[in-house]
Amino acid sequence: MDDAYDEGADARHGPDSPSGTRPEPESAPPAPPPAPVSPVPVSAVSAVSPAGAPALPRTGVAALSPRYQVAAALALALVAVAACVHLGMVFLSVAPANTVTKQHGKAIEDWVYPEFEQNWKLFAPNPLQQNIAVQVRADVLMPDGTTTTTGWNDLSAQDGRAIDGSLLPSHTVQNELRRALDFFTTTHGTDNRPIGLRGSLSEQYLRRIVVMRMYAGDATSRKGTIERVQVRSSTTNVPPPDWSGEKVSDTPVYRVLPWWTVTADEANGGVR
Question: Where are the transmembrane segments (predicted)?
Fold first, then answer.
């Protein structure tokens, strides 16, 4: 019995293994490493399109060698610079007189004339480079019978204050006074004598405007009756930028017009 039991135990566990344990299974041999994949050349990839068709050949500057590509880029840059310089010179030749044209006028003329001469101007007329103010004073007959002369009232400054901060300034505030003075100066000589038939009309137009403005904005005029008015213009040069180095006078130049007698209908409130 014992021998049979021992033989049965040996049959289950093996002759060398201890009782109650299983023998270790034999490990499988390791798998061989994968074969390396050789990279596909870039030329082979670019030579075939995704659909399998051959790629199109390079054209233009891209088809050139690197040395010629650099030369082409430099040539294009030179053409672009020359075009910009030419456009700038032509622009300055037709633009109004400014700091650049005053300093480099000879170089601009040498570039433009005679091959690129222009027969037009950028602005017509040239933009103003001066500040022109219209000022007025009046002789006022007071209720006690005396006559008082007011100080100079700067009507242009009043218009400027009315425009500042206004999103929609009226056309009258912006242009009425300026156009009236322009109308007068174009129909009168430097001696303030009228030229042509419109001279008296421009004088009457300017006089009525300043009388109306004096009644509206001058405290002394509102207390009495305006008998005479005198208008003058104050012209001051616009200062140039600091970098220009240009020097202009900042002293105002006055053009004083003669005293004008206010007519009865104007003095009695016809233009109030």
Answer: 70-94
**Cα of 182 vs its chain's centroid, Å:** 29
Tokens of 47: 């030579």
What CA–CA distance (Å, rounded) separates 128 from 235? 11
Q: What is the pLDDT of residues 80-93, one digit of tens each?
A: 999 999 999 988 88
What does the pLDDT look like over 212-247, one tens digit per residue? 999 999 999 899 999 999 999 999 998 888 887 778
Q: Structure tokens of 159?
A: 């218009």
Res. 4: pLDDT tops 50: no
Residues 75, 185: one domain? no
Q: Count how many domains the chain has.
A: 2
Q: Which two tokens stand for residue 165?
A: 């901060």
Inside any domain, residue 124: no
- 254 lies in the same domain as 176: yes
Strand, helix or coil for residue 67: helix
Residue of 205, 159, 171 lying closest to 186 (CA atoms): 205
The DSSP output letter for 188 is: B
Q: Could you tell me the CA-to-CA distances from 258 to 43, 71, 112, 136, 233 in Å, in that order?
A: 93, 73, 48, 11, 12
Residue 89 lies in a domain: yes
Domain of residue 103, residue span: 63-112
* 186 closest CA partner among 203, 207, 171: 203
Q: What is the pLDDT of residues 131-181, one digit of tens each?
A: 999 999 999 999 999 999 999 999 999 999 989 888 888 888 888 999 999
CB atoms within 10 A of CB 180: 19
Task: Give this prediction's pTM.
Answer: 0.56
